[in-house]
Amino acid sequence: MTEVLATQGRTVVETAALVRSGELTAVGMVTEALDRIERCDRMLGAFVHVDAEGALARASAVDRLVADGGDPGPMAGVPLGVKELHPVAGWPFAMGSTLYAGRTADHTCTLVTRAVRAGAVPIGVTASPEFGRASFTASTLHGVTRNPWNPALTPGGSSGGSAAAVAAGMVPIATGTDGAGSLRIPASYCGLVGFKPTYGLVPRGPRHAGAADNDHYGALTRTVRDTARFLDCVCGTDPFDRASLPAPPRFEDRLGADPGRLRVAFAENLGNAPCDPAVAEVVRTAAEKFLAATGAEAVPARLTVDPRCGAAYRTLSAPDVYSQLRDVPAGSDIHPTLRGYLEAATAVDADALADAHAMRAGLVATVAEAFERFSLLLLPATQVPAFPAEGPMPTEIAGTPVDHWGALAVTFPFNLTGQPAISVPAGTVAGVPVGLQIVGHRHSDALVLTAAAVVEEIIR
């Protein structure tokens, strides 16, 4: 199984421009998307539900508005995939779990509501592992999702269905979540842009019940400009999300801004797990090209993450998983990762919780002190090339055994700190993409996007 299904399709910006001008129709865009899904998705398993009738009806409404001289918005007629962790009223909402098979969402999340208000056309639900708790996309409920660059391999997770859908040209954009790398990892493996904004920038309402404050919302796209366009449509305070932040000035307008004199650090890893040498070489080369193109000053990273932060992350996140599973009958079939979270949750006491919060505070301080010496940190977005689609996650990297958190060592720390971090294509290893990760200070999202746009230009 080696057929390459990855393709270059229209971007969000291109699609919206064609629909807004009347040169092409939203119905035509949606029909193309549906045809592509029909041709490719039997092999890839990106979508778990497609609402063709609803999408065509919404697209027709967009076209009527254009015909009447109106402007549907900056995402006019853009077919949108929706990760199955994001509810859409009337659509299936199983969250990848047999425990919720047959459940239908009774509300639509703010993220999708705002994208629709900007003219986007939701077309269907993309696959996630159970509750989004794995870095490959497979579940008992939906089966295995595969990478369009090589269907024997994973597109990553947990936003793997969204990444496969965009990389295969089924849709130009699909929503995602990032709790420990779930936007950046699929972006890396599928040659896409995956941006985890500053925590709170993209609202998670309504009814998001997570207490760990690690989960960021975003999207998978083909270009940095598409990501900026999407953010400009969905950011802003939400009364249903206590952590939501005011919308900043438009990101798309600032992509070409001069970032000024930058101080940039590069690290192959954060000292808490190794990186595959082939991945490290590709990413280092991309980082060197960025430094040369921008004239940035290279400074040593000198940033080491305490390996115990992984256990702290699990302790902080375990109550969220427990809230979803506490009514599950004993012996139920759930993913082994979820079983580990559930066992951890039942073992959490006040001391363990206090220790986890202290570990997180220590990490925030360590990273903040490091960022006093540089503006941006460049490092791999994934530590290994894409692995088999069925899993499991890597248990060894560069000859060193790693646990679950060691396999996520370059991504999950920035969920604990809430900083903006993006994966942008850096090159390939064995014919499959790997990404360069760019991390910035909290609220330096515009700078991170600008830097990613530079990398995007020089790596083409």
UniProtKB/TrEMBL annotation:
Pfam families: Amidase. One of its GO terms (molecular function) is amidase activity. It comes from the Bacteria. It catalyses: a monocarboxylic acid amide + H2O = a monocarboxylate + NH4(+). Signal peptide: none annotated. Residues 30-449 form the Amidase domain. Its EC number is 3.5.1.4. InterPro entries: Amidase, Amidase_CS, Amidase_dom, AS_sf. Belongs to the amidase family. This is amidase. It comes from Mycolicibacterium litorale.
